[in-house]
Amino acid sequence: MTKHNSQNEDPGGIPENAAGGLLHIDLDALASNWRTLRDNAGGAETAAVVKANAYGIGIEKAVPALAQAGCRTFFVAHLSEAIRARAVAPDATIYVLNGLFAGTGPTCAEHNLRPVLGSFEEIEEWAGFCRTESLKRPAAIHVDTGMNRLGLTVPQGLTLKDRAELKDFEPALLMSHFVSAEESDNPLNRQQIEAFQAVRSSLPGLPASLPNSSGIFLGDKPPYDLVRPGYALYGGNPTPDRDNPLKPVIGLEARIVQLRWVEADHTVGYNGRWLALEKRRIATLSVGYADGYPRSASARGKSGDNLLAGMTLVAGHPCPFAGNVSMDLITIDVTAVPENQIRRGDTVTLIGGDLTIDEVGRRSGTIGYEILTNLGSRYARVYRGGQG
Q1: Which NCBIfam families match (predicted)?
Q2: Per-residue confidence at 6, pLDDT binned at 50, 70, 90?
Q3: What is the CATH number for 216?
Q4: DSSP-assigned beta bridge partners for residue 171
Q5: Taking a C-beta distance cutoff of 8 angstroms, is the pair 332, 239 a contact?
Q6: DSSP code at position 304
Q7: 243 burial type by CB count under 10 A (0-12 exposed, 13-18 middle, 19+ buried)
Q8: pLDDT of 134-174, one tens digit each?
């Protein structure tokens, strides 16, 4: 059985011995990754994107660790996340990426938060709020250069210099977002850079931000004034065509709750989608899709098939999933593990070693981002490092 030091267990969280899964989070690796990204940012300020509960590892743990490493600017998606970040980073600059929700100007002001304004309506509302307060509060302006989600269009961005509302608040940052920066040879990258540069040139002196995690590693990108890494901070590979330059931050283990032999021609799991062609030993893990492990990692076929499905490491042995991932349980084929190396109560690796978050995403038919941000609340969270 794997033994763990619980000194850094999440205070108030689930005790290790009561949890079906253990989520290990290395805050020192998180800080190291931020420094690596900073060193590749061409002198630009390196912010940190901590939306989605800091990609699943916890805002209240991640933000102080990053601030201790030197990060001074943070981005979140929702106002509620920004308030949480402010509580643990009283002096940081915090931007709210999803914009200014109607009527939330007073809340932004109360917590000293900066909305990212992506429409003329938002700009008008923020400017009006600042006029009412007789105080020019800062905000970012988002120009869409190809994503077609949020942001002013490029033609709208080129008219910003003539908008009277910009005199009523402090435009603190001009930003856009890459569509395919992880594809280094995608021509859209150059098109976006050129479009963004045109808007930026019309607003001289306004700090600018374009690169995300993968954008930092584009060979021909200008770093501008600020870069906004997210996924790479947490160990995701920003350069999928090359080796990952970042350290893994999370590891996930699941507890074996039962071991059994399944006879030949018997099936395992819901709907009988996995068939044992010969006698197989099956371990049942106390983790399922209710814990954020995707059901799409289910193994549907026969024992011995080379399935693109979930995989575990058990006492150093790769062991594939067997059958459907269910709400609270996963079944795996551990026949290859010597019987004296496995027993009830042991933990097995779901994420760690060769099972990186990118590999787990690939085997689940999704991306590592989804794996990270779905990490559930039923794990015992064991933190390492990040202490003052």
Answers
A1: alr
A2: very low
A3: 3.20.20.10
A4: 139
A5: no
A6: T
A7: exposed
A8: 999 999 999 999 999 999 999 999 999 999 999 999 999 99
CA 232 to chain centre: 8
Q: What's the total number of domains in the chain?
A: 2
Q: 280 and 214 in one domain?
A: no
Which residue, among 244, 214, 219, 216, has the nearest Cα to 231 in the 3D structure?
214
Identity of the residue numbered 83: I
Which residue range is the domain that position 118 belongs to? 41-234
SS3 content of the chain, % helix, strand, coil (to 5): 30, 25, 45
**pTM (2 d.p.):** 0.94
User: From the candidates 95, 247, 270, 369, which is the catalytic residue?
Assistant: 270
Whether residues 199 and 317 share a domain: the answer is: no
Residues in contact with 241: Cβ distance below 8 Å, sequence separation at least 6, in sequence order: 184
Q: Both 172 and 254 in a single domain?
A: no
pLDDT at res. 4: 44
Q: What is the 3-state secondary structure (H, E, C) of 131-169?
A: HHHCCCCEEEEEECCCCCCCCECHHHHCCHHHCHHHHCC
Residues 197 and 290 in one domain: no
pLDDT at 1: 38
pLDDT in tens, 248-306: 999 999 999 999 999 999 999 999 999 999 999 999 999 999 999 999 999 999 998 88
Task: Please identify which residue in the block is written with the tokens 């002198």.
Answer: 43
Binding-site residues for substrate, please?
A: 149, 327
Q: Which amino acid is present at 360?
A: V
Q: State the CATH number of the domain containing residue 335.
A: 2.40.37.10
Per-residue pLDDT tens digits for 312-336 = 999 999 999 999 999 999 999 999 9
95 catalytically annotated: no
Distance CA 38, CA 227 (A): 9
- 51 is annotated as an active-site residue: yes
